[in-house]
Design a protein that fits this description.
- This protein has 268 residues and is an alpha/beta fold.
- Helix content is 22%, strand content 24%.
- The protein has six helices and 17 strands.
- It has helices at 13-26, 46-61, 75-83, 157-162, 196-205, 218-222, and strands spanning 2-6, 30-33, 65-67, 88-89, 94-98, 101-106, 135-138, 144-147, 172-176, 187-188, 191-192, 209-211, 226-229, 232-235, 246-250, 255-258, 264-266.
- Helix 1 (13-26) runs parallel beside helix 2.
- The longest helix has 16 residues, at 46-61.
- The chain is globular and about 45 Å long.
- 46% of the residues are buried.
- The model has no long low-confidence stretch (mean pLDDT 96).
Length: 268
Amino acid sequence: MRLLFTSDLHGNAGLYERLASQSARLSPDAVVIGGDLFPAGASTDQPAFLRDVVEPAVTAMAVPVYVIPGNNDHRATWDLVGDSGLMVDANGRTIDIGGGWRLFGYGFVDVTPFPLKDWEKFDDADRTNDDDRYDGYVTWPERRSVVLDPADRSDTIERDLAGLAPEDPERTIMAFHAPPHGTPLDVVERGHVGSLAIRAFIERHQPPLSLHGHVHEAPHRSGQWWARLGRTVCINPGQAPPELHAVLVDMDGRTARHTTFDGVAALS
């Protein structure tokens, strides 16, 4: 099983063209896109971008394409992704992807400094950050303003993941939009901004591979596009247009190679 993984294409048509080209050149068995498929902003026409850019690129790939949402993707658009019949929505699900492997996906991230709150939740019962923005808007079930309450921790990433444990983690690849906290994959200028709950979930279940995005600059700051948490190899391609940053994973050969950065990650 060979997977081509990328994330955070952010509505860049050139990156979609390059992804289709890389897929044709590398011949993976499947493509995984780890969130932030669409152009950001309240006024962006994400359904039009899906129709005009994403769907033609996915059709050209001619292999199964699995996706999860990211914090810039409008939840009101996300149903259209699954309805297209061209991509498989893996968010909150475990899916058989062939070769004896399964894919588990989860798109929610901890609260950010950005206004769109469709795919944001508090990380756990206690965590807050100085840069958290609590006021913003959601697009589903209708577009409206919201204010998150840091005192209300009834719905958190930690609680979600507690109910989503995979049955066979040793044969499960995990895809999260957010990276695990305290690794080279979540570093920004102010420090580590990844998810504590996602890190704890990975450490508890120890899948062979976890795929991440969200913090584009982290691999460029840390100099590492992969890290190990116990037996798990965690990957963040570190998107940086105009080049496509992606990783080709060979689950049978137990290797991962970046399309831009040097080095090979060995999966245990």
